[in-house]
Structure formats: structure tokens, C-alpha cells
From TrEMBL:
SMART domains xrefs: MutH
Family: Belongs to the MutH family.
Listed Gene3D superfamilies: DNA mismatch repair MutH/Restriction endonuclease, type II (3.40.600.10)
Encoding gene (name): mutH
Biological role stated in the UniProt entry: Sequence-specific endonuclease that cleaves unmethylated GATC sequences. It is involved in DNA mismatch repair.
Organism from which the protein derives: Alteromonas sediminis
Localization: Cytoplasm
Protein name in UniProt: DNA mismatch repair protein MutH
UniProt-listed InterPro entries: DNA_mismatch_repair_MutH, DNA_rep_MutH/RE_typeII_Sau3AI, DNA_rep_MutH/T2_RE_sf, Restrct_endonuc-II-like
Amino acid sequence: MQPPVTPPDDLSDLLSRARSIAGWSFGELAIMAGIEIPKHFKRHKGWTGQLIELWLGATAGSKPQQDFPELGVELKTIPIDAAGNPLETTYVCYTPLLPVPGSSWQRSNVRNKLSCVLWVPVEGERTLAVEHRRVGSAVLWSPTEEELSLLEQDWNELNDLIIAGQIERITSRHGQVLQLRPKAANGRVLTDAIGEEGQRIKTRPRGYYLRKTFTQAILHRAFYQQE
DNA sequence: GAATGATCATGC
DNA sequence: GCATGATCATTC
């Protein structure tokens, strides 16, 4: 078995690829792909995501679009514990901190990215050696009306605060399902934003993240439906 | 123990 | 610096 060299032809091709790696360990998949296995992720935080991208035939790169543009599908690996619950929040995308003309929830990057996601659960407990961690069964998900509504509410609330110059008052506690948190190489990275008096200020870049309770519900529902 | 805020690698 | 891939580690 070897990683594909071309993107999946269609959705069933993508799902078939996902099924083919389910149950395999990171070590097995890395050896077959000819890539090195880190001992831990302290300096290799995106390693698992890139391993799965490779095996599903996603185009590597830093495009602000979906992983499979032709299929309209975004890929997300999600680390889970032994009970199948998420160990980490899920990064969605960067947040514009300056007003975007004509911006709206409907046109937002959050909505675009989350319109259809292939969730690939992976074993993520730190006590498990990286090479022994296994890939789980992928879940193809599109938000329900209720989920869409929650996301829209949070996006609107957070976006309103940003536009109103309240960025420095926003913490991860805002939002029911979506949070805003720093997203940068380190604390010295700064970008432009709107200050309290409407003036231009410098602040740390922020990104949207999905709360664990939200992704847990997605995985649980998918698992429940398979029973 | 969990969550928040901070950080790491990479390409351009 | 922006954007991808996220997890780390200090704080609560």
C-alpha cells in the first residue's frame, strides 16, 4: 500500500481512501509513505494532519480554501481519547480583524470551511507512543440546521465585537460552539485591528476554533447512527 | 484535570 | 505576516 499521487476523483473515492487507512497505526502509515516518525509533537504539531492529507491525496499547501475544492470537502483530523472524545479544540480559520466590505455569515470563511467536513478521528493520548496511535473511522459531516444556527450566532456575536473595537475584551469564553483564540507563531506577531476608539491598533492575530463539546456531539452522533 | 492563551513547523 | 497543519504548557 502506498499513498495516492492524485487527488480523489470524487466523494466515494475520498471515502474509500479514508476507509483504507482506518485501523492502521501512524507508524505503519509513515513507513509505507517513507516519512519519519516524531517521538512527540512538541515540534511537530501538524504532523498527523499532514500524514492524513498525504494518504487521502489532499493538495499540500497553505490555501485559505477547502482541502478538496473540487469536492467541496474540508479535512480535519481530530485527536480523541480512549472513550472517543476530543482531546483538543479544532482550528477552523483565521479571523479578519478589520472590517471586510460586504462581509456576512453566509460569505464567511467559517461557514465555507464547515459546510462539509471529513472528520478523521485519531488516537491522541500522550501516553500512547506516536507510532502506535491509530487512525479511526472517518465521518463525513455537514452541519444540521441547529448547528448552523449556533455557529451563525457565535460568528455574529464575535464579529460584532471585533468591528466594535472590542477585540481585546474577547476571550475564549465567548461563544457557545465557536471560540476566538490567538493563532500565531508567538506573542510578538502583531496584526492590525480596530481599537476601542475606532482607531487602528496592533494585536495578536486570532483564529476561530470549535469547542470540544461541539465536535464531540458530531462524533457521537455519527457513532450512534452506525449502531 | 480541563481550558485558556501561547507556541511550533513550513511555504510564500 | 498570513495561512496551512495543530498541540503544548501554564493557569485556573
